[in-house]
Amino acid sequence: MKNGKRPTRKQKQAIQCARLNPANWLVTKSLPDKLFIVHRESGRERIIPA
């Protein structure tokens, strides 16, 4: 699994729109229409719209 990076302000807003807490998620891949995120503690991966 790739190491996640801290989300930018725009990415944090996208994470919040998906009803998630941005403090708990790291960004592994950022595409124009999708955001690949991974949970800081559990390692669970999700794909959300960007």
Description:
- The chain has 50 residues and is of the alpha+beta class.
- The protein has one domain (9-49): SH3 type barrels.
- The protein is 18% helix and 34% strand.
- The protein contains one helix and three strands.
- The protein has one helix at residues 9-17; strands at residues 25-30, 34-39, 45-49.
- The chain has a three-stranded antiparallel beta sheet with strand order 1-2-3, covered by helices on one side.
- Strand 2 and strand 3 (45-49) form a beta hairpin.
- The longest helix is centred in the first third of the chain and has 9 residues, at 9-17.
- 16% of the residues are buried.
- The model has no long low-confidence stretch (mean pLDDT 95).
Strand share of the residues?
A: 25-35%
* Class derived from helix and strand content: alpha+beta
Instruction: Quickly name the level 1 CATH class.
Output: Mainly Beta
Largest sheet: 3 strands, antiparallel
* Shape summary: globular
> How many domains?
1
Helix content: 10-25%
Rg over CA atoms? 9 Å
Q: Compute the number of strand runs.
A: 3
Ends apart, CA distance between termini? 21 Å
The H/E string reads HEEE
The CATH topology turns out to be SH3 type barrels
With helices defined by DSSP (H or I, 4 residues minimum), what is the helix count?
A: 1
> What CATH architecture do you see?
Roll
Mean pLDDT comes to 95
